[in-house]
Amino acid sequence: MVFTLAARELRSMFLSPMAWVILAVVSGLCAYFFLLYIDLYLQLQPRLAGLSNAPGVTNVIVMPLFSTTATVLLLVTPLLTMRLISEERRSQTLSLLMSAPVSMTEIILGKFLGVFTFVLLMLALVAVMPLSLWAGGEIDMGLWASGLLGLVLLLASFCSIGLYISTLTTQPTVAAVTTFGILLLLWVLNLAGSTGNEGGGVLNYLSLLSHYQPLLKGIFSSTDVVYYLLLIFSCLALSVRRLDADRLQH
Amino acid sequence: MTDDILIKVEQLTRYYGAQSGLQPAVDNISFEVRRGEVLGFLGPNGAGKSTTMRIITGNLAPSHGRITINGIDILDNPKKAKAGIGFLPELPPLYRELTVDEYLQFCARLNRIPRDKQANAIGSARERCGLSNVGKRLIANISKGYQQRVGIAQAIIHSPAVVVLDEPTVGLDPIQIREIRHLIRELSNEHSVILSTHILPEVQATCDRVQIINQGRLVLSDSIEGLIQHMQTSSLRLRTKNRANNDLLLAIEGVVAVDTIDEDYVQIKHKPEINPAAAIARMTVEQNWDLLEMTPERRSLEEIFVDITTAEQTTDEPVEPPGVAA
Predict the structure, then answer these.
(1) Between 20 and 30 A from A103 (CA), which of A32, B4, B80, B200?
(2) Are both B64 and B187 inside the same structural domain?
(3) Which of B22, B53, B70, B110 to mutate to test binding with chain A, by most A CBs within 10 Å of its CB?
């Protein structure tokens, strides 16, 4: 049932030009950044050759690419998640799901899976770019995988936050703006943490970015993974509750 | 028509806003619908029709009360109960970017129709709703009437025990309305149908039983035959060639009032237990008024409806000083 809902979601996305435009823009932008980092590497190469413990291709090209991709997708994900529930509510198609023999959990999981599949597709386009470097050298597949895992977890949290915000409103634009605000806030929360103020540690822990950076360095810590899983799970649980509250409303 | 009850609603109440002090949107409604019955739900706008329907179909939770669909409680076992319901809300819940076939396919899966029976279910729903030649078209591009039919097809695709239709003929042209009514009659062969409307002739044309709801309360629940009885009133219309003398008519036993409507028309109101028609006929002959026409008057359904709903309003309107609700 979850897959039926997810498939419908994905299908509707690809039936509108939105999905295609987003795919094109994201891969275009990321390709540009990829070329930019290759260029940078070529400039640095003579100097790097002199160092004894020089960073490799993966460190200089692939990881910055993944880092930039995360920023680009931070801007794009709200546009994907905004209409998940709010649009159904506005066009009153939600009652089709509500009167069908489907539980609220299945509806939310279906929606999440639908949009997450799309995001993974987008990610796949970006993730294969660095693999072209095999043509001229060697890349560190362990580092690549760790970075990619970070990106996947990060985007799953983006999606779950966006989904929850979308259950709160009937206006997709409101959902998009709110989601963007919250994502950006969570993203830069570690800036306050790094100034050394009291409570900085907490803010640092809450930041989405501070759990992504270790993975980009190839450090796999279960704390970071659990942080993302907790965030995703909480947002999904909140969404289910919010949708259920629709029946009890006012 | 068999006797098994497919939907049973007991003491349904639903509040919006603060629990106490406010008048509930639906107030202690109980009714049941048997297999093969079409129940018409009538009421002015905002009377609580849509709220009741949304509660029956699990879109809203009731504040109090119990609903059983085919013997299954909708609150205790929502998934199983909902499998027995097909619902067409006021606005058909359509994904406009899909084609009719794709949409029905999705609905078939959503209602957990086994994979090998899906094609059959879709085919027969399409057939019954007259959608065979628009299957490949986008829902966004078909006319309002067809969209409404897709909405109905969606509600009957899994052959539910109860089909709930909220104002199914709103915004359709007269021919489409006739077709939809025909379809509803046809549906009642296998399903129970609950139909809400504020178009009165629709009820007369399609329903077996009528319930009038006003301000959240059930104010009338009767069969169509009973309603027709309601429509018979105690008045006669008399048309004569020469003008009738009102005073003489008033003297006839049982006559309560005589109103001149027109040059040659009078309306005679009489006590319900005495029918003065024979006496009036005799008098017209004796007085040489030359009888042209005498007909018992019937109240239209409209008049009954207005009577019932406005009477309620004046007698027990809850006194609600503004601002108290907050």
Answers:
(1) B4
(2) yes
(3) B110
